[in-house]
Records
---
Amino acid sequence: MPFGSQIAPSYWEKSSFLKDRDVIIVGSGIVGLTAAIEVKKRRPDWSVLVIERGTLPSGASTKNAGFACIGSPSELLLDAKEMGWEPVLQLIKQRWEGLMALRKLVGDKGLQFQPTGGYELFVPEQEDLFERCTETIIDLNKNLEFAGPNYFMPEGNPNSLGLSKFAHVIYSPHEGSIHPGSMMQALLKICRSLDIDILTGFNVEGMEESANDVTVHSGSMKVSGRLALLATNAFAKELISSLDVRPARNQVLLTSKIPNLALQGTFHHDHGFLYFRNLDGRVLIGGARNHFKKEESTKEFGNTGAIMQYLTSFLKTHVLPDTHFEVEHQWSGILGLGGDKSPITQWSSDRIFTACRLSGIGVAIGTSIGQSAATQILSR
Ligand SMILES: Cc1cc2nc3c(=O)[nH]c(=O)nc-3n(C[C@H](O)[C@H](O)[C@H](O)COP(=O)(O)OP(=O)(O)OC[C@H]3O[C@@H](n4cnc5c(N)ncnc54)[C@H](O)[C@@H]3O)c2cc1C
């Protein structure tokens, strides 16, 4: 039986749900929604439509680990090796500003923000790396004074945090955690309050630009706007093949409840590739895609035995030694990566602006990118 976009729309649907818009935003992740909100706040008279192919947002924004951070010292060191320090410092600033803008827009209650502090952990084999990080954070802290004093600082014994077999830790009092589902529900609520239309289950298959507008279509459904924003992150290449963005899967697992779990804070390890935190008395752990590069270079959601085993073994060695636990939930999300960590923000044609490739710290930078995409759209 035909369903959704396979059924020809009625006249009524064409002149309501599918009517012409000022702006069409493809993708209802953090970038798409914050851009829609910013456009509508500044131009309440504009008609704004957000299109999403999933029933829920189906990329990274509701699948992530909920770290409110700007990147761990060893991750920033690695990025600087690849991109140079200037762009990394610029990224850090955008991430911090994005977090502040997100907290202002949604509020800490809506985000379920918890100022837990963040930690980067080093094992004994990473002695050199730890030394380089402690040297680097002296300069980093000077550049991070806008966020507060002593952004990063080496701390005493990491294993006093209830952990095992770590040699060193660098602490940041400025970081914390959020609930990504709550964040996205709050953003959707703001969209509804501003009269922004949202169509879900609409998988945009193509975007065609004419002299006067852009038309996006899915099967027999199409809708046109004067301008469009492509905010589909990892999947952006499906619609504009020239974009330098590739997908990478990130897998996450959540343990059963651990009685008297001491762990508090957000924890990074291995250049930011591995992360864990306490979530309602359970441990959430994710990442490790750097050890499975080929398998995780995919836009297919799913969990693999190899990564689940890696994460479970890490938990047994370092986080929950001598503690019985079960894996109660597992899921995955898809990151948008590129040649470096900078997001793509550009006019891809006269009427289509692209804001994608948010890499691994997109909760932080997402609102900055969404709001600046809105500014571009409004200035056209
Ligand atoms: C497992 C995991 C853990 C992470 N942890 C953290 C963290 O702790 N802290 C942090 O700051 N960042 C984290 N991130 C990164 C962060 O979640 C992302 O960078 C950010 O959510 C990207 O937002 P976005 O709006 O650009 O993209 P997305 O959230 O991916 O949104 C893009 C949307 O576009 C839709 N879409 C795609 N193609 C189409 C189409 N053709 N038609 C219609 N709709 C379409 C998708 O369904 C999706 O909903 C993590 C990511 C993952 C995967």
---
Amino acid sequence: VRLAVVIGTYNERENLTPLIDGIRRNLTGEDLRIVVVDDNSPDGTGVLADSLAKADPRISVIHRPGKLGLGTAMRDGIQRALRDGAEAVATMDADLSHPPEALPRLRNAVQSGADIALGSRYVPGGRISGWSWMRKLTSATANTLTRVLTGSRVHDNTGNYRLVRRSVFDALDVNAIRSEGYAWQIEFAGLAQQLGFRITEVPIHFINRRAGASKINRSEILRAALTILRLSVQRKKTSSGNPQR
Ligand SMILES: Nc1nc2c(ncn2[C@@H]2O[C@H](COP(=O)(O)OP(=O)(O)O)[C@@H](O)[C@H]2O)c(=O)[nH]1
Ligand SMILES: [Mg+2]
């Protein structure tokens, strides 16, 4: 199976090499591709990514001119992976919060029939280490609101650790996703559920980054909240029914 892993980077110089090593160690049986989407990181992550790519033809790098958002980075990386023939595409953070050791379990979930395998902190066996209570509360609230307001049946709607079967992207055009930042993941999960794809949540142990700084900020949180409200309104409109039916 040709499996591509898409990684968005913004100032992840210390994390990128151990992450890529972890991915290569954990996906040995695959025809692997790695796509790094770097937004002109001031710390030189893009230069490092180029040198890693030079040493390993399975790695490719997309350079964007500036910080254009995690969501659009995933979109651009996924489209590159599909053009390169990927049969399944994973997304993950670059800061080692998403343990590469879980990749085989995500792959097994897709091999046993899931269209989408989500690395999940909010199912039994899932854990978070190293986050402040405030950060935990923010994430738990976003996920609870998504479930209550949009009818999502998924427990971890905000995580970026996912493996998606190629066929999902035939029905779900990533260009139609309006969110550009962290909210992109919430919108993608919502659309996938509307389209009836089989989603499996695989428990992961999320470990807060040791190197570098988080890029989440108030504006990302606000935009995630607005995305949840928008999905909730769209759901009401659809469920209020089409009179012709
Ligand atoms: N290319 C790109 N990557 C981003 C952007 N914003 C965040 N990232 C990456 O997305 C991942 C998650 O970001 P992080 O700051 O760890 O968020 P947190 O885990 O929610 O605190 C990391 O790999 C970041 O480098 C962006 O605008 N562009
Ligand atoms: Mg992080």
